[in-house]
Every structure is written in structure tokens, then in C-alpha cells.
Amino acid sequence: MSKQRLTATDRVRNEIDGLFADPERELGEVLEEVARLSVRLVMQSALEAEVTEFLGRDRYARGERARAGMRNGYGDTTVKTTAGAVPLKRPKVRGTLEKFSSRLLGKHVTRTNALESLVISGWVRGLSDRDIEAALREALGDEATISKSTVSRICDQIKDEFAKWRTRDLSDVTIDYLFVDASHFKMHEGARSEPVLAAYGITTEGNPVFLHLDGVSAESTDACAGFLEDMVARGLSSPVLTISDGSPGLCAAIDQVFPHARRQRCLIHRCWNTIAKVSEIDQSAVRADFWEIFDIGDDIEPGEPAVAEARRRAGQFEATWGKTYPGAVSGVTDTLDELVAHLHYPRAHWPRVRHSNLIERTFGETRRRVKVIGRLPGERSALSLLWAVLDRAAGGWRGITYPPADVRLLQMIRRDLGLTNPRKEHPEPDPHRDVAHVA
User: Fold this and answer.
1) Which letter does DSSP use for residue 146 in this model?
2) Distance CA 300, CA 69 (A)
3) CB of 174 within 8 A of CB of 203?
4) 298 pLDDT higher than 80
5) Could you give the 3-state DSSP secondary structure of residue 86?
6) Residue by residue, what is the 3-state secondary structure of 164-184?
7) Helix residue ranges, H only, 56-92
8) CA 262 to CA 251: how far, in whole Å?
């Protein structure tokens, strides 16, 4: 589509995509800016949908017309909010027998906080039809609210996109690394926070891909296995390494669904758990010694040599702190096999595949945003919110470089683990393809 044919809504979406594609921007900073752009995006989408409803046809649609008239560009307008002035493109219509008048930009709208009401209600609550209508009615009055059909048109489009995404075919996605993480959100009145699972992977070409998102009743083995089996049923093949926190149900489910893959326990989570059992005066020293176990130098080859060196350092860690903090040390030594799994893989990949912090950071941003309302009104709303945030964030996730030596190592690992699949053999890298380096 040429630049001239882009809708005002498309232009705002492009701005959001550009933010996530900027490698120099921190994720937290990007999400703050996206939150501000969401004001324009949601309101601009509503304005475009009003015109579609009025004319009875989509943009550039041909055939029988439900109403005389056509779109005629945009006019600039500004809505004042408590967050500052928000520029919008107000659609123009010509050749109509009946005058088009936006119900959304009603009387006195520029002197209200309607946009905040719309975005808080729509974005945080999952773009519920009833919530959007109620927020606009409270802010603007009955005469300024948009119709139910317009609200439904916007919300249905978002729901359709999510529904298609979560049921899409994954048979063409071949991954080396699978990351799975869970976070908890309050979604039902009087109930405790409930887990939401998210999965993303690094493909055999080094590209990040957001794979799956769903709520589960608990982090039990059966519930987590169902989450993983859904991806397998849609065609996802086994990775060579899985990365997760130490949840017993999730770990057991991963071992059950992907029995041939090694499993890496998130080092960041294990570090937090270790430090929590140490007195404040020694926490800095214990943290430094913990990471020293896994920061293997370039003089030691990946694989068994690197694992053996990590075991030696873990012995030193136990000798130094075992008597003072036996609980903290045993948490490391008892799970050491899971903590050193990443050392079998290419050295350049170690900083990326030894933790699941990428999804955890995005979950943290979402929890911070919904904290003010206490809970989300239902699982569907929570999943809509999380998908919207993670799907946008995934556009800015960095890939991993795959030089020939690393490709050969991963091919050998696949064969050793019994995961060779002739139809999805690991590709040789394209020397002309530009892949982002490990973050």
C-alpha cells in the first residue's frame, strides 16, 4: 500500500511498530510511549469505524453502496486531555444526502478526560463493548457516545485477530530454543491471582517468534502440559533446549511433552531465590559468587568442558557459603544439572538462553499498569491485554546470530538428542542475511 493510501489509523500503527523496532530504546520506555500512542490509536480506530458504519462499506470497497457519498480525506483536530493535547485526523465525507456527524467527538469533548476513560476502560479491560460504551457515556453524555455497532466493529476486529493468532498453524515454525514463563493476574471477583502462560522461541534461522498465550487454572503438570500440547498439536516440533523458571508443574510438563530436549532453569529466578535466603550483609558477595559459577571464560569449550568447570566452581561456592547458608547453597547444588544445561550450546547464545527474563519484563510492565484497578474482569480481558502488549513487544525482540560453527554444533546436538528431522533440517546460514545480535 502506498503512503498516500494509508489510513490515519495505519499511520499510528506504523509509529508504534517503529518504536518496537528501535534497538536503542529500552522496553519500559517504549511501552510508556506506546501507552500514549494507544490514545490516538483507539480513538482514531473509532473515528474510522464510524465512517464505515455511516457509508455501509469498508474503505475502497466496491459494488452496491449502502449510502451515497465517499470518503474525502481528513481534517486536523486536537483533543485536550489530562496527559496533554492529542492530535487526531477527523475523517471527511462528501457527496452524501445526509450530513455525517461524528457521535464520538461530541459537544465539549475537548474539555474532558474522555480519552483517558476510553483507553483505561478499553485497553486495560480488554476492549469490552460494554466498558467502552459506559466510559464514553460517563465522560461525554448519552448524545456523544458511539453506537453499539461501531464499538462492536472495533472490538470484534481485535478479538478476531487474537482468535486467529492463537489457533494458527505452527508446522512451518522450527525452533531451537523454547522459552515458557508464567505470571499471575486477578481475573475473578473474590478469587486469587491466576496464572497466564506465555511461550516464545528462537527459530533455526535465529529469529524470535511469539508462539502461544493462554490462561490455566493452576501451574499444575496437567494444565501446563495442555498448554504445551496445544502448540504441538498445531505442528510445533521439539526444540533442543527449553527455558523456564523452577515451577514443579511447568518443569514436569516440559519434560513430559518434550522429553528429548534439555531443560534450562532460569538463572535469574534461581539467583533471586538464593539471595532471599541470605542475610542482607552478605547478599552482594553471594550474588557475585553465584554468577561466577556460570560465567565461563572463552578458553573453555562449550559442552562437557564448560559443564565440568561450572561444577568445579559450584563446589567452591558450596565450600565458601555452605555452612553459613545451607538452604541457599543446596538450592543451587541440588538443581545444578538444570542450571548448567545452556553450557552445552553455542557460547554466543549463553547470555540469551540461560534465563526467561524477556517475557518476565513485559509481564512486569503489564502488572504495573493493571495494579491500579486491582483485577481484570475475566480471563478473556486479561488475555486480550497481555496478547496486545506481548504481540507488539515481540516486534522489537532481537534475534541470535548463527555463524557456520554454531549451526554445526546445533546440528550435532539435535542428532545426539534424537531430534533429527530430515524435513526440517537446520539450514545453513545465509551470509547476506542480516540478523540482529544477541541482546
Assistant:
1) P
2) 73
3) yes
4) yes
5) strand
6) HHHCCCCCCCCEEEEEEEEEE
7) none
8) 11
SS3 94: strand
**C-alpha cell, 13:** 500503527
Closest to 167 (Cα-Cα) out of 233, 224, 262, 116: 233
pLDDT digits over 348-384, tens only?
999 999 998 766 666 665 555 555 444 455 667 667 6
Q: State how far the Cα of 401 lies from the Cα of 206, in Å rounded to an integer.
A: 6
Give the type of residue at 51.
V
CB 50 within 8 A of CB 102: yes
Length of the chain: 439
Task: Read off the C-alpha cell for 140.
Answer: 461525554
pTM for this prediction: 0.66
Strand 194-203 and strand 208-215: the pairing is: antiparallel
Q: Which residue has the cell 486480550?
A: 384
| Grid-cell match 541482546, residue found | 439
Q: Is 141 exposed, middle or buried (0-12, 13-18, 19+ CB in 10 A)?
A: middle
Per the DSSP assignment, residues forming a β-bridge with 78 are: 87
Q: How far apart (Å, rounded) are the C-alpha atoms in residues 400 and 398?
A: 7
